[in-house]
């Protein structure tokens, strides 16, 4: 175990971590993106591919991040530096920690703006501000919501303040206490909406939309979408999971805990689909994607259903809590680093970070109104934050994590931390060395548009290529380890 880590606050129990990590993973994307992708790319066939990608790509990388965090007992920068040094690795590996911490903070700079939409729509639902008779009317309301910098700025500022208040209270009194009621509350509200949907008349259509097994509609694009979403939905390579892992008690099983988080994240995403789409189908609407579904079609459907205002309020409360639990996790790495390295209190670190976050997020917020024309290479500030983090920093960070764990660290380092049986550890090591890197590279290449990837019916050939890479990798492993450790 590393010997320069300072005593560190820990979760009160394993479930504190599970709820916090699940809250980090369950965000706005789970509520609309995963259900829509499921129906768009083949229903049950897409779900099976997605689950396979979670097991093959998401779970191994998440286990790696948690293990690195708990082993190093620090922020991403400190934890990676300590664990790499323990195995004789170069100090440059700490740059992975810098990238992860910066990535999470940059994501949060535009995420608070999107989260502000949820809070503003909760208020509109309560105050009757969502009156409209068509999707076009709702689109006009959504546009007006973004065109006012004072309105949009108010709600994004509210999200920033709420996040910093919770994070400033600490790991146990702030984060763990908050997610201990927000996550169960979110699940309860989803169950209430699912129960209503079961009697709405659109439940059968929703089940078919989400789960009908149609292998013919699962294209290469769908497979890549499943791989990409499996990686990004678990908040990997953004500093959140690694930092949360640094608070994990020594006696908690990393493997069992990771599987619990992955299953919970997937279940919440599927439950969101079962809550949303019965309402959409019962009112004769076409299931759209993105903000169009959540902020335009769904509010219109709530108006047409009995007790629609009540269910609309419940839905936007749930959406706001999902947004808040994710924003809490994305800022924790920065606050953790400041408290560990700058000798300042957690409260001061939280509010100092909040001020910088507010300034940068204001620039992102202005991209929707007065700053819409402030573009560089065709992208405004909001778009650049999204592009740099999702297309570059997260894939590169994830690739660096698995290379560090698979080829640089001493074999006993993470074997001891993970506590797996010999057979399971060998499986994890194989996935981290070969399957996860290959998957991340595929996502990276596709996201950047470097090449058009078409799996078609080439799965046997891809498996053969993976086997060849694994054999070559094992033969070259000692030399590769020396190169990466230099």
UniProtKB/TrEMBL annotation:
It is a multi-pass membrane protein. It comes from the Bacteria. Its main location: membrane. GO terms for molecular function: symporter activity. One of its GO terms (cellular component) is membrane. Belongs to the sodium:neurotransmitter symporter (SNF) (TC 2.A.22) family. InterPro entries: Na/ntran_symport (IPR000175), SNS_sf (IPR037272), YocR/YhdH-like (IPR047218). This is Transporter. SUPFAM superfamilies: SNF-like. PANTHER family: TRANSPORTER. Keywords: Membrane, Symport, Transmembrane, Transmembrane helix, Transport. The chain crosses the membrane at residues 12-32, 44-69, 90-117, 152-171, 183-203, 223-247, 259-281, 301-328, 349-372, 392-409, 430-453, 459-477. Pfam families: SNF. It is found in: Membrane. NCBIfam families: Na_transp. The keyword Zinc-finger does not apply.
């Amino acid at each position: 175990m590393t010997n320069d880590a300072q005593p560190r606050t820990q979760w009160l129990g394993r479930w504190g971590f599970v709820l916090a990590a699940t809250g980090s993973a369950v965000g706005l994307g789970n509520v609309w993106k995963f259900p829509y992708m499921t129906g768009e790319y083949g229903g049950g066939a897409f779900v099976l591919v997605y689950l396979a990608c979670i097991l093959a790509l998401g779970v191994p990388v998440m286990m790696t991040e948690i293990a690195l965090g708990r082993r190093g007992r620090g922020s991403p920068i400190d934890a990676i530096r300590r664990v790499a040094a323990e195995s004789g690795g170069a100090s440059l590996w700490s740059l992975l920690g810098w990238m992860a911490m910066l990535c999470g903070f940059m994501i949060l700079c535009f995420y608070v703006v999107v989260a502000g939409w949820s809070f503003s729509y909760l208020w509109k639902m309560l105050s009757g501000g969502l009156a409209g008779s068509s999707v076009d009317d709702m689109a006009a309301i959504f546009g007006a919501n973004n065109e006012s910098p004072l309105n949009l700025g108010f709600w994004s500022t509210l999200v920033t303040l709420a996040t910093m208040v919770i994070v400033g209270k600490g790991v146990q009194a702030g984060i763990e206490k908050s997610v201990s009621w927000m996550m169960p509350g979110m699940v309860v509200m989803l169950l209430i909406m699912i129960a209503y949907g079961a009697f709405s008349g659109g439940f059968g259509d929703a089940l078919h939309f989400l789960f009908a097994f149609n292998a013919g509609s699962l294209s290469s694009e769908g497979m890549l979408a499943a791989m990409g979403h499996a990686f990004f939905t678990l908040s990997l390579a953004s500093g959140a999971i690694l930092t949360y892992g640094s608070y994990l008690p020594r006696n908690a099983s990393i493997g069992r805990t990771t599987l619990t988080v992955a299953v919970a994240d997937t279940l919440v995403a599927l439950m969101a689909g079962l809550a949303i789409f019965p309402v959409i189908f019962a009112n004769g609407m076409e299931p759209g994607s993105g903000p169009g579904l959540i902020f335009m079609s769904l509010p219109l459907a709530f108006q047409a259903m009995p007790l629609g205002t009540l269910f609309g309020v419940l839905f936007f409360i749930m959406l706001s809590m999902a947004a808040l639990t994710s924003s809490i996790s994305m800022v924790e790495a920065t606050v953790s680093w400041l408290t560990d390295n700058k000798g300042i209190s957690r409260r001061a670190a939280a509010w100092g970070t909040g001020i910088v976050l507010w300034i940068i997020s204001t620039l992102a917020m202005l991209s929707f109104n007065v700053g819409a024309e402030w573009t560089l290479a065709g992208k405004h500030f909001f778009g650049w934050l999204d592009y740099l983090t999702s297309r570059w920093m997260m894939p590169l960070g994830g690739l660096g994590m698995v290379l560090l764990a698979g080829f640089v660290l001493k074999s006993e380092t993470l074997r001891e931390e993970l506590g797996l049986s010999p057979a399971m550890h060998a499986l994890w090591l194989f996935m981290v060395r070969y399957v996860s890197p290959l998957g991340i590279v595929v996502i990276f290449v596709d996201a950047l548009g470097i090449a058009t990837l078409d799996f078609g019916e080439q799965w046997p050939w891809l498996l053969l290529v993976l086997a060849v890479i694994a054999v070559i990798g094992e033969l070259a492993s000692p030399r590769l380890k020396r190169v990466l450790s230099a």
